[in-house]
Amino acid sequence: MTMPKNVRASDMIELSLPGDDFIVRKRFPSIRQMAQICLAAVIVVFGVVILVRNDTIVGALVCVLVGSIMLHLGRNIEKQQKVINATEFMNALFSSALCKGHKFCFVARKDGRVVYVDRGFQEVFPDFMDQPQRELAAFINIYNLSSDVSGKLIEMVASGSDGQLLLSAATGANKINQTMNVTCESIVRPKGYVLVRGK
Question: Is residue 39 in a domain?
Answer without folding.
Answer: yes
